[in-house]
Write a structure and sequence with these properties.
It is built from 15 helices and twelve strands. It is α/β, with parallel strands linked by helices. The strands form two sheets. The protein has a six-stranded mixed beta sheet with strand order 3-4-5-2-1-6, with helices on one face. Strands 8-9-7-10-11-12 form a six-stranded mixed beta sheet, with helices on both faces. Helix 11 links the parallel strand 10 and strand 11. The two termini are about 20 Å apart.
């Protein structure tokens, strides 16, 4: 452990801004009771909220609030923790933070040492990092803390809560235990090659490996669903001017977010709104109408629209049903379609063909657009439910299974690596004793990839990246 991880740390643990309550948190490898006495003027019993004045150097009260002391190891970080809960004004909290740093340097008359030597401001995520380092949380649970804070939907929050409680980690532990059992069999065969006993056959190693891969597939599926809940997908609405893109955004969002007028080219820049369908966040982007334009501002908006289309997870190519069959309009749609083909849109991301303004005409969908085209009215809402269902299908969402947990792209990548190593192990096992050493290595690598999810195996630079994305005070 590096030297700075032995330093006591302090930070404001509540979000920036004004609020009814604000918290300053201190975590230290050594006892915080002397500092608590200096700040509150009384000895704090363990795990008991005490109403005290928070005093400055002259003994004047900065604020009054609750002080709580959690002796190690029974705290969030596993260290000695002191929490000062006062009023949530930014100035008050900054004064209290400064007072903690000042008081920590004061000399304890009994020992002749500072009350809390080397107390410093905490880095983002350092409290949770210490909880991980002190085995209060594994890495997947630590990440779930940030995911719970950042959750944008109720389903995501509940799933993050399940990950924090250890549901995802338990799944990984089950896979790890089964993998260790299989490794034991292979190692036993390698250690006793002269024996006539075939450990692998007697213990049904092939069946164990097949069952392990089946369990892994189920975990990967739930993890993909969990990652979708966390990240969502970006959906770009594209089409010619006045096709109803802004109206569709407003209809999906249930609010008047974008300006809607009969004037072509009203939207000059992107308008983004996050909505949720069955708990899945969809980041819907309304873009400028795609057409040739001599207007400098509109041209910039059109260029940005194409940039958004290139970054999208799905594209809604919106057509105006009331203008279908008009030569000029059809030519404009053909131009957009050709440009999408040139940019490989449709091969890289799915493109849904959506025909708007069905309330304005009685005509059927043009036959050339195919059976998968969606007919709707952004004005009346007809067809929106079908569009929502299709968007979930495009996202790969299935009805949320009970007990779904949140996962990250890092977890998905690790699970993909496990699957690849187990597939290679399956091939090695089929070769018999001639490839046992290679089989053992594939199983070892699979276990390492699993361990990277919970932090059993991992590099310090990975930890730095993960915890640096937390908020300060957490």
């Amino acid at each position: 452990m590096s030297a700075d991880r032995q330093d006591p740390i302090v930070a404001i643990a509540t979000a920036p801004g004004r609020g009814g309550v604000g918290i300053v948190r201190i975590s230290s490898p050594v006892d915080v009771a002397p500092l608590a006495l200096a700040l509150g003027g009384r000895v704090l019993p363990a795990r008991e909220a005490c109403y005290v004045p928070f005093r400055d150097t002259q003994g004047q009260a900065i604020d009054h609030g609750l002080a709580l002391r959690f002796p190690a190891p029974h705290s969030y970080t596993g260290e000695h923790v002191l929490e000062l809960q006062g009023h949530g004004g930014p100035v008050v909290l900054q004064l209290l933070l400064a007072r903690c740093l000042e008081a920590a340097s004061m000399v304890d008359p009994a020992s002749g040492q500072p009350l809390l030597k080397r107390l410093r401001l905490a880095r983002p995520g350092e409290f949770t990092e210490r909880a991980f380092l002190n085995d209060k949380l594994d890495l997947a649970q630590a990440e779930a803390v940030a995911d719970l804070i950042d959750a944008s939907t109720e389903a995501a929050a509940r799933s993050a809560g399940r990950s924090l409680s250890g549901a995802f980690s338990d799944e990984i532990a089950g896979l790890r235990d089964a993998l260790i059992q299989l490794r034991m069999l292979v190692e036993a065969t390698l250690d006793f090659p002269e024996e006539e006993i075939d450990f692998l056959q007697q213990a049904d190693a092939q069946g164990q490996l097949d069952r392990l891969r089946g369990r892994l597939d189920a975990v990967r599926q739930r993890a993909r669903q969990g990652a979708l809940l966390r990240e969502g997908i970006t959906v770009v609405i594209a089409g010619q001017p006045n096709a109803g893109k802004s109206s569709l955004l407003n209809a999906l969002a249930g609010a008047e977010l974008a300006i809607v007028t009969p004037i072509a080219g009203t939207t000059r820049d992107k308008v983004t709104q996050t909505i949720q369908i069955e708990g899945v966040p969809l980041h819907v982007v309304d873009t400028a109408g795609l057409r040739a334009s001599d207007d400098a501002v509109e041209s910039i908006g059109i260029a940005r629209a194409w940039d958004e289309i290139g970054r999208a997870d799905a594209v809604l190519f919106l057509h105006d049903l009331s203008r279908a069959g008009e030569a000029r309009y059809d030519a404009g749609d053909d131009d957009i379609r050709r440009t999408m083909d040139e940019r490989a849109v449709g091969r890289a991301v799915p493109v849904l063909q959506v025909w708007n303004k069905s309330d304005a005409v009685d005509a059927a969908l043009p036959a050339a657009m195919g059976e998968d085209a969606i007919r709707l009215s952004a004005r009346t809402g007809a067809g929106l439910d079908l569009l929502r269902r299709r968007l979930l299908e495009v996202a790969g969402w299935q009805s949320a299974p009970e007990g779904l947990y949140l996962a990250r792209e890092r977890h998905l990548q690790a699970l993909r690596e496990v699957d690849e190593h187990l597939a290679d192990a399956h091939e090695r096992l089929a070769l018999g004793n001639a490839a046992l050493d290679l089989l053992a290595e594939e199983l070892r690598l699979a276990q390492n990839a699993l361990g990277a999810i919970t932090g059993e195996f991992g590099a310090d630079d990975l930890l730095g990246v993960i915890f640096s994305r937390f908020c300060i005070g957490k």
